[in-house]
Design goal:
The protein is α/β, with parallel strands linked by helices. It has a domain at about 120-235 and about 255-265: Rossmann fold. It has seven helices and 13 strands. Strands 7-11-10-8-12 form a five-stranded mixed beta barrel. Helix 2 (about 80-95) runs parallel beside helix 6. The radius of gyration is 19 Å and the shape is globular.
Length: about 290
C-alpha cells in the first residue's frame, strides 16, 4: 500500500494545486520548455497557436497551449538550482502523485523538459550568439549533497579532482543530458560540458568590489582536461536540472545562447535576437 505524503511535505493550495507553481495536473503538458526569466515565458508562448492556461506565481510563470497540434508548456524557474529543485519536484508531483489521495502513482510518467537559457562561453573559438547543447554539467552548488546521489568511479574521481583543484569544502556533482533529447537537438548546435555555479559573481570568477577566493577560476576550468570533454560554458541551472531529472526519471536537455565570451571578455550586442532565434529553432523541432 502506498504511503500517504503528509500535508506539510507536499503543500497544496486550497484549490488543490501544488503550492509554488500554483498548478493542477491538467494545466501542464507532457513536453515542457523551461526558462529562467519570467519575462521570457510570453516570448515563447507568443508563437503558440493557442494558449489555454496562464498562471503567475511569484517568479514562476506558466503558459500552456498548443503549436501545430502539439501541447506544450513553458515555465520560468527564476535563477539558481534552488529554484530548479522546487520546480522539478512540483512538476513531478503533478504527474506522478495523486493529489487527492496524496499517494504516489503506480505507473510513473516521464516528462520531456527542454531548457532554453543564456550562458557565458569559456572557449575563445566559439562565436558570440552561438547555440550550444549541454551534453553534461558539473554542479558547483551543494544541491546533490542533500539527495542520495551516486556516481561511477570515473565521475567520482573527476568531481573529487575538481574539489581539490578549487579547494572546495564540498564535493561537486556531475550529471548527463538525456540521450533521447540530445539526439533530437544535435544538428547545428555546438556541444560541450556546462559548469553550473551557485551565483553570478565570485562563483563565476567575476570581481566587482569583492575579490573571489578562487584565483583564475574561469581560466583554470577552461583549460582543464576532463573525461567527458571540454568545459564550454558557465551558468546557474543546468546541472541541477540534469541531476533532478535523472533522480526523478524525466528526459531533460539544456540549450544555451552563448551571449558572452569570457575568454575574449565580449558580450553580445544582439542577445535578445539570439535568444528569440533559439526559441524559434526549439519550437520548430518540437512541433515537427
Amino acid at each position: 500500500m502506498s504511503i500517504r505524503i503528509p500535508e506539510s511535505e507536499l503543500i497544496l493550495t486550497p484549490q488543490g494545486r501544488v503550492y509554488h507553481l500554483n498548478l493542477s495536473p491538467e494545466m501542464v503538458a507532457d513536453t515542457i520548455i523551461v526558462v529562467g526569466d519570467p519575462e521570457r515565458v510570453p516570448k515563447v508562448s507568443c508563437y503558440f497557436d493557442k494558449v489555454e492556461h496562464q498562471v503567475n506565481s511569484r517568479e514562476l510563470v506558466t503558459h500552456t497551449g498548443t503549436l501545430g497540434g502539439k501541447r506544450l508548456s513553458v515555465i520560468s524557474s527564476g535563477m539558481g538550482t534552488d529554484n530548479v529543485e522546487l520546480l522539478m519536484t512540483e512538476l513531478d508531483a503533478l504527474v506522478n502523485v495523486n493529489l487527492e489521495t496524496r499517494e504516489i502513482k503506480e505507473d510513473l510518467k516521464s516528462l520531456q523538459i527542454i531548457r532554453i537559457g543564456t550562458s557565458g562561453c569559456l572557449q575563445p573559438e566559439i562565436p558570440i550568439d552561438a547555440f550550444l547543447v549541454s551534453t553534461a554539467a558539473l554542479g558547483l552548488d551543494t544541491l546533490m549533497n542533500f539527495y542520495n546521489w551516486t556516481s561511477d568511479k570515473v565521475t567520482e574521481d573527476f568531481t573529487r579532482k575538481i574539489q581539490n583543484e578549487l579547494s572546495l569544502s564540498f564535493q561537486p556533482y556531475f550529471a548527463k543530458a538525456s540521450e533521447k533529447l540530445l539526439s533530437l537537438f544535435s544538428d547545428n548546435y555546438y556541444q560541450g560540458v556546462t559548469i553550473t555555479a551557485p551565483g553570478f559573481y565570485a562563483p563565476q570568477g567575476r570581481q566587482v568590489r569583492l575579490k573571489p577566493r578562487v584565483d583564475g577560476l574561469v581560466d583554470r576550468l577552461a583549460a582543464m582536461n576532463t573525461p567527458f570533454g571540454q568545459f564550454t560554458n558557465l551558468e546557474m541551472e543546468t546541472a541541477g536540472y540534469y541531476a533532478m531529472a535523472q533522480l526523478l526519471g524525466h528526459e531533460m536537455i539544456s540549450l544555451n545562447a552563448l551571449i558572452a565570451n569570457r575568454a575574449r571578455q565580449e558580450f553580445s550586442k544582439n542577445h535578445e535576437s539570439a535568444v528569440d532565434d533559439l526559441i524559434k529553432r526549439v519550437l520548430a523541432t518540437l512541433s515537427a
